[in-house]
Amino acid sequence: MLVSEIFHSIQGEGELAGMPSVFVRTSGCNLRCTWCDTPYASWNPGGERMDVDAIVARVAGFGARHAVLTGGEPMIAPGIRELAAALHDADMHITIETAATIAPDGIACELASLSPKLRNSSPGGRLGEAWREKHESLRWQPAVVGAWMATYDYQLKFVVAGPNDLEEIETMLGELSVRPPAAKVLLMPEGVEQAQLRERGSWLAEVCKTCGYRFCPRLHIELFGNRRGT
């Protein structure tokens, strides 16, 4: 498996925000979000070739009980199911951070952090037509999202760039076979700079108050800034 980085930090997003966790960031992604904050893992994948035993040993060395499989898109990584099973056998709590374009098929997981992409993620003219079409065709897979929701504890996280995104989110929620409880829907402001996150967060928090959705801060950006290993 090609691993971009393994690091010990605190979970910055979602229901487990603040939880000390070891992050295993795999290399490679099947989407090309224009605002991707990990292009070094997603667009130009590199890193270290590691087998499952080596990854588990490094994770265990930090002494944390929570492991986060992230990317890129971890679900396309060869051996990801074997890695999740091995971490589960090591009594780790496993969060999988995924765009939910690939069905779980029984992967070991305690919390599925599902982040389907909105139209605001489109790579636009930055990439060629082939990638634009692939991204658009893959970014929203309601049947796959439903399969994750039916199998695991989950959170449904949307990256919000502006007020126009809210109508699209409502449409997407309506396309799911079972609409999730409002408290399971997390709205996170898009951005990697504190000033931008605060500006967008101020109005997005009001939306959450009105709709009952959960506001999702980016705690790691607040604490450490936008840098690797955090």
Annotation keywords:
33% helix; TIM Barrel; 21% strand; alpha/beta; 230 residues; globular; nine-stranded mixed β-sheet
Instruction: Report how far apart the termini are.
Output: 21 Å
CATH architecture of the domain at 2-158: Alpha-Beta Barrel
Specify Rg, calculated over alpha carbons: 17 Å
The CATH topology of the domain at 2-158 corresponds to TIM Barrel
Set down the secondary structure blueprint:
Layout: E1 2-10, E2 20-26, H1 39-42, E3 48-49, H2 52-60, E4 66-70, H3 80-89, E5 93-98, E6 111-114, H4 129-138, H5 142-151, E7 153-160, H6 165-174, E8 185-189, H7 194-211, E9 214-215, H8 219-224
Describe this structure in words.
The radius of gyration is 17 Å and the shape is globular. It has helices at 39-42, 52-60, 80-89, 129-138, 142-151, 165-174, 194-211, 219-224; strands at residues 2-10, 20-26, 48-49, 66-70, 93-98, 111-114, 153-160, 185-189, 214-215. The chain has a 9-stranded mixed beta sheet. Helix 7 (194-211) links the parallel strand 8 (185-189) and strand 9. The chain has a domain at 2-158: TIM Barrel (Alpha-Beta Barrel), CATH 3.20.20. It is 33% helix and 21% strand. The protein has 8 helices and 9 strands. The chain is α/β, with parallel strands linked by helices and 230 residues long.
Short description:
This protein is an alpha/beta fold. 33% of the residues lie in helices and 21% in strands. The longest helix has 18 residues.
